[in-house]
Amino acid sequence: MEPKLLSELANETMPFGKYAGQPLIRLPIAYLVWMQNKGWPAPPLGPKLALILEIKHNGLSYLLKPLKQDHSS
């Protein structure tokens, strides 16, 4: 897996819907499963959300925390 993709997963936000503005990694699993059942959005967002679901489902979210960029400065 590309490090750039992992960094994007750790730092991108949801662009629309109920969770607009929330980091992808903080989306609830229930929402991701709902979206999977409805059909993922078009790339590049859809595949990223599918990967976030796999990461969260397998308890690996902690691996993305070191990649989170601090935008407060």
Provide an overview of this structure.
This protein is mainly alpha-helical. The chain has one domain (3-65). 44% of the residues lie in helices and 0% in strands. It contains 3 helices and no strands. The chain has helices spanning 3-11, 29-38, 45-57. Helix 2 packs across helix 3. The longest helix has 13 residues, at 45-57. The model has no long low-confidence stretch (mean pLDDT 92).
Question: Can you give keywords for this protein?
Answer:
single chain; QSregVF_b; mainly alpha; 73 residues; DUF3820 family protein
What's the short version?
This protein has 73 residues and is mainly alpha-helical.
Mean pLDDT: 92
* Content-based structural category: mainly alpha
- The helix fraction, in percent, is 40-55%
Compute the gyration radius: what is it?
12 Å
| pLDDT < 50 stretches | none
Number of domains: 1
Number of helices: 3
Q: Determine the N-to-C terminus distance.
A: 29 Å
- Series of secondary-structure elements, N-terminal to C-terminal: HHH
Number of strands: 0
> What percentage of amino acids are in beta strands?
under 5%
Q: Could you describe the largest sheet, including whether it forms a barrel?
A: none
Sequence-ordered SSE layout with sheet pairings:
Blueprint: H1 3-11, H2 29-38, H3 45-57
